[in-house]
Each structure stands twice: as structure tokens, then as C-alpha cells.
Amino acid sequence: MPLTQGTMTNPNADRVRRIAELTRAKTRRKVGRMLVEAPQAVREAVTFHPERVEDVYIAIDEDGNTVSARAAEIAAYIMGHKDECGGIYVHYVTQRVMDAISGDAQGIAAVASTKGMAGRLADFAAGGDNDVDGRRGPLTIAAFWQVRDPGNAGTVIRTADAAGADAVVFVDDCVDPLGPKVVRSTAGSLFHIPVLRASVDELFAWNADHNASVLAADVRGTGDLKPVPLPELLAAEPKDDAHTSRSILFGNEARGLDDDILERCDGIVSIPIYGKAESLNLATSAAVLLYSLAMSSHVGKM
Amino acid sequence: MPLTQGTMTNPNADRVRRIAELTRAKTRRKVGRMLVEAPQAVREAVTFHPERVEDVYIAIDEDGNTVSARAAEIAAYIMGHKDECGGIYVHYVTQRVMDAISGDAQGIAAVASTKGMAGRLADFAAGGDNDVDGRRGPLTIAAFWQVRDPGNAGTVIRTADAAGADAVVFVDDCVDPLGPKVVRSTAGSLFHIPVLRASVDELFAWNADHNASVLAADVRGTGDLKPVPLPELLAAEPKDDAHTSRSILFGNEARGLDDDILERCDGIVSIPIYGKAESLNLATSAAVLLYSLAMSSHVGKM
After folding, report:
1. Higher pLDDT, residue B227 or B124
2. Of A165, A275, A295, which has the smallest distance from its Cβ to B192's Cβ?
3. Does B193 lie at the interface with A, CB-CB under 8 angstroms?
4. What is the mean pLDDT of residues B178-187?
5. Which end of chain A is flanked by fewer CB atoms within 10 Å, N or C?
């Protein structure tokens, strides 16, 4: 079978070991590359940022057939888009080699450059993909302070993307947004929307510089700053583009937001609990809040 | 230390083995008991359904002190509520015994009767906790067809509880809602809200019998039944109690809802995607939809 010519068969090869090492944050930082696993994430990377993708690894069986039909479609897409994808090298590998690369590849994995990914919020207006000036109307930024769980981190990036946010900012000491589990949980959204990093000070400085307000999601509030229930906030939303840019800031999964951060925000919003649940988890809170505000804004523009 | 008198120290004891076996659905069905792990779930079980709780196991260290401060609070609550909690037996166990009971106990676990839990939707109006007649106004039922992932299942139960739904129904072949991972993911909501089971036919029969409509969450629709975008649905919601009872039906994580189910629904609603994400996951869809409808309904009543 022609496909098997040059197939990578050695799971102990140096190249395989180097790819597998990209699961470690330290290695990713050192070599400036990341691992993208499974058809959905690889397809979105190849479609939206082919210039970042260096190598694609596709598992084939003993007869030389691609193990995953979706992987075969991605290979065909790359071959059919020479202009955009000319820099991508497609490798066929045995299942044993794929298993050595990643246990979560579902037949396809890619190595991509981390250049231009997970940059600083301060550079968001500095051109390129992150060019804030190319975006229309007021911006919505979804900001997460000390998000620690990779699954949560990926899910909130996906939710922010779906809700039409202009960027996601991981504030302070968060999980690395380029880690494999985060990437998988974003279902490709990592390649749709700028995901940036900032310190707490950088977050507030950026918002001040861009005439943007910071709205914290918190049930308690602090001192004189008490939360406004979300339905009240929605009822008071301007039904046109009159509102300015805004960052919605969510706290850590367990601790929420510290008081000294809440005190610096322009407002606090709480999601009402109508039943007996004590609280909502981070991903649920982000879904409810980001979507409510997005729907309110879009309905206003209709 | 008095606390250590009678402490369970043998991780190989028959009782310990029997508790650990409750992680298996088959054993739960056979013995009619379930395992409740970690402080939040145990506290909610003891607070909302003490009559279901048979035994509580609390880990103590070598000095006889309770390992978890939250577990100690629960023990104090049980001692202080003899009327409600008189039937609960509290056992102190070594950490090794607790590890043999559960790797996810965080210092406390309970064994509860499954009687009255995860019953049939058809019995929802039959009195007791599930007495539909004791509920006021139109009912909102959150129904999930073939939900398979335990974490998803628990999260959607928690979300439905927070959004004030009157019950959760697992339709057709779903994950067992009494499994340990589901229970943990509900964060106690399993003990706040009736969680019921139904076949597809039972779901539609119950809704027909109760003059309730079935609204499917789906992006595609089928045949002549096309989805209404959620913002349009919200704009058309009656701003009083004029609407009747309603079941919101969500599909399987990967497959969504089958066409033959969609065709039986009274309406279909889709959540708009404002960004480039291809879809939302089940838990996010449930959060956005259940909360939007709940907020709309509650604002209408204000």
C-alpha cells in the first residue's frame, strides 16, 4: 500500500519521545511547541491557524488504512489546501507509535508552534491575530482568575467562544491553557479566539486603558459593593451598542474571588439560585452569565 | 481518647468490603443501598433526607481527631438533631479503613437506602417526596435522553436544582444516577430534587397526562419542525403564570436526539452560537437553557 511507505513504526524513536514530552508545561515553554490531540482540535488548528501547525501524525492500520475516518478527512483537507497548509508535514504512523505519542489522539495528533498563543493581555492591541482594532463595537472579555482544573479551563474557553466573547484572559496563577487536557476540552476553540494571560494589575490596567469596565461574578460581594442579581442586570442592559467594552471576571473554582480583587471591580453580578443547590460550579456560572449577556446584547442589535 | 473506642480499624472487614461494593450498580440494585462520598454530599443527604441515611463513616487520625473539620460538623449536626437523625449510626474509622471504603471520601462517607430514589416518572404524582400535587404553579422538568457520562449527569442535576426545576428525568438508557461519581458531581443536589427514570414513551405519556409540553434542545430540528432560537423563545415567553407545565428534553452527549423523538416534541429550541465554536457540550447547553427559562419566568413573576 502506498500509504505505508515511510510509515513511522518505531514507538521508541527520538521524535516520538520528543512529542510525548510536550505533555509537560516545562518542555512546551522550552521548545515553543504544543501537542494537539484528536480530530476536532486538529481540524480546528489546521483550518483556523494552519501557519501554526508543523506536523500532523495519523494512525494507520496493518493494511495501510487510516484508523479514523475524521483523520482521513483532515489529511484530505491539508492536501487540498496547499496554499494555506503547505508548511504542514503529514506523517503516517502505526497504532503503537500513536499510542506512544498520546493516549487521547483518537487516530490523529499534531505538533503546533506556540508562537502567538497564550500571549500577554497587554499585547492584545498590538496587531496580528490579537488586533483589538480590527474588532467592531464594544469588546467582551471573559477573564478567569486562578482557574486550576484543565477540564474547567477548556470548557470555559469553549463557552466564551460560543458566546461570542472577543478574548479569554487567564489571570494570575492559572493552569497552562496550552496543556493537552485543556486543548482537548476547548474542542478547538483555543484556535478560534485569543487566549491571553495577565496579572491582576495588568487586567485592571488594560481595562482602564480601553475605557472598559470589570464586572465580577460573585455571590457575596464585599464591603459596600454588593452583587446585582443577573436578571436585574439584564433588565438594565442598554438595548443598543451604547455600552462600552467589558471584562467579566470569574474566580477560582473553590475560593471564588479575593476581596481585594472584588474591591477593584466596577460591579459585581450574582446568579440567583432558585432551588436548593448551594452554588453553581465555575463552568456553569460562566455559561449562564456569558450567554445571558451575549443574548441580551444580540437581541438588542436585532 | 473516647472517640477512638470502637473505632473500625480493619480495612479487610466484611462490612468495609460490602460498602466498597456499592460502587457497582448491580450491587446497589441488589441490596437497595448506595454510597455517598465526601462532606458536601453527606451533609445534604443528612440534612434533606436523614430518613434515607443508615450509616455515616468518619475518618479519625491516630490521636482520635476527626480528619475533616467538615466531617466533624456533620457529626455534630447528627448528634444535635436526634429527632430527624435518630436512625443514623455514626462510625469512626481509621484512614486506612476509609481508604478501603472510598478513595473519594475526603474524610466522610455514608451508606443510604435507595428507597424512594431514582423512581419512575409515572409515580411522580403518587405522593411522598415526589408529590406533584404539592408543587405550585406550572412544573418545569429537566429531561435527559441517554446521558452517559457520570460527571455530566451529576452536573446537569446540580444545574437543574439551581435553576429551580421541579424534577430531573433520565430517559431511556442513561448512566445510573445513584453511582458514586454522579452523586459527587451533583454536589448534594441528588437529595434536593426528585431524580426519576422513564422510557421515551413514559416521558411523552406523562407530559400528555399533565397537560405539559415537551421542548427539545436541538440545533438541527427535523422535517417540518425547525428549532426556534433561544432569544426568540425568551422574547415570546408569557410574563405571568399563563404557561403550562413543560419538560425540556436534552439529547445524548455525542448523538443529540434521534429524529423519531424530535418528531414527537411540541417544539425545538436551539442555542445560538455567536462565535466560531461548532457546538456546546451538554452541561453548558443545559445551564444556558434551563437558566434562561428560569430567569425569564421569575422576572415575569416579580
Report:
1. B227
2. A275
3. yes
4. 95
5. C
Residue to substitute from A40, A155, A159, A219, interface B, most B β-carbons within 10 A:
A159
Clarify whether residues A99 and A49 are in a common domain.
Answer: yes
For the stretch B44-54, pLDDT in tens is 999 999 999 99
3-state secondary structure chain B: CHHHCCCECCCCCHHHHHHHHHHCHHHHHHHCEEEEECHHHHHHHHHHCHHHEEEEEEEECCCCCECCHHHHHHHHHHHHCHHHHCCCEEEEEEHHHHHHHCCCCCCEEEEEECCCCCCEHHHCCCCHHHCHHHCCCCCEEEEEECCCCHHHHHHHHHHHHHCCCCEEEEECCCCCCCCHHHHHHHCCHHHCCCEEEECHHHHHHHHHHCCCEEEEECCCCECCECCEEHHHHHHCCCCCCCCCCEEEEECECCCECCHHHHCCCCEEEECCCCCCCCCCCHHHHHHHHHHHHHHHHHHHHC
| C-beta atoms of A277 and B161 within 8 A | yes
User: Is the same domain home to B148 and B256?
Assistant: yes
Instruction: State whether B212 and B280 are in the same domain.
Output: yes
Residue A204 shares a structural domain with residue A84: no
Inter-chain touch B288–A291, beta carbons under 8 Å: yes
Domains held by chain A: number: 2
Chain B CB contacts of A277 under 8 Å are 158, 161-162, 187-189, 192
Examine the domain organization and report whether A143 and A240 are in the same domain.
Answer: yes
Q: What is the average pLDDT across B32-38?
A: 96
Contact B187 A40 (CB under 8 A): no
Q: Summarize pLDDT for A235-284 with one digit per residue, the tens.
A: 988 766 566 899 999 999 999 999 999 999 999 999 999 999 999 999 99
What pLDDT is stored for residue B197 in this prediction? 97
